[in-house]
Amino acid sequence: MNKEMHAANLKLSILMPVRDEAASIPIVLKKLSAAVETAHEVLIIYDHSEDDSIAAVKSIQPKYPRLRLVYNDLGGGILNALYKGIEAAQGQYILIACVDDIGPVLAIDSMVVLLDQGCDFVSGTRYDHGGRRLGGSRHGAFLSTFANTLFRLGGSVLSDSTTGFKMFKRRCFRELKLESRRVGWVVAFEIGIKAQLAGFKLGEIPILSIDRLYGGKSTFQALPWFIEYSCWFCWGIIQLHAQKHRPQVLVYIPAVTPLK
């Protein structure tokens, strides 16, 4: 299959920024292959040549022809990884995902449905419509739950602005004009805020987030994360309160087949 045919058949590009995730990559690839019916590619984005993810990807690429390595030469951090990933992506829809979180994979096809139905941006939610969060740092879980609850009371129409599991139409990315610093996944929070401010047609879907069951050590650091998230929290509240028209959110809850 030539490059033009390959691109034409792709609807979705899944971007996964990594740092030493050799143990996580084979597992998440198996989950994606089993759970996602939408034609997709997976881009593993790394930013240093000694990352053990590189060898892991090369060893399994024959089994996954739409798996690609992308070197982020723009500088470290999730935001630069996203810019580089979108530059290399061939799908019309973009999904940002953490390689170590296996639960949200089950929601991918449903997120595509929302974009097909006219949404520009779809966010997973761990805190409403049946979504749940399991595992990970206790401090991180507390701050995330508390911050999203307050942020929703402060004017957000999304129930989980900080989740890193977000999908959007590729053409919408540049409109966000992202600028957050290199602190963990704080860029996901910025995206959640600016998608609302940009007037995008929004969608939300419950996800089951199961964090850090395998793979490398978490990079969570309480103080720098708290400072950076607090800055975006305050800025977001001010901007959302000044917004004249609150966007509506199309919620999609996948049907569950009852057990017999």
Q: What can you tell me about this protein's structure?
A:
The protein has 260 residues and is of the alpha/beta class. The chain has one domain (8-251): Spore Coat Polysaccharide Biosynthesis Protein SpsA, Chain A (Alpha-Beta Complex). It is 37% helix and 18% strand. The protein has helices at 3-8, 24-35, 53-60, 78-88, 108-116, 138-153, 186-197, 222-242; strands spanning 12-17, 40-46, 67-71, 93-96, 121-125, 132-135, 166-169, 202-206, 208-211, 249-251. The protein has an 8-stranded mixed beta sheet with strand order 3-2-1-4-7-5-8-10, sandwiched between helices. A two-stranded parallel ribbon has the order 6-9. The termini are far apart. Mean pLDDT is 88; it is low at 1-5.
Domain module tally: 1
**Mean of all residue-level pLDDT scores:** 88
Low-confidence stretches: 1-5
Across the major sheet, the strand order is 3-2-1-4-7-5-8-10
**The level-1 CATH class:** Alpha Beta
Please bin the fraction of helical residues. 25-40%
Provide a count of the helices.
8
Identify the notable features of this structure and list them briefly.
alpha/beta, two-stranded parallel ribbon, 260 residues, single chain, globular, eight-stranded mixed β-sheet, disordered N terminus, Spore Coat Polysaccharide Biosynthesis Protein SpsA, Chain A
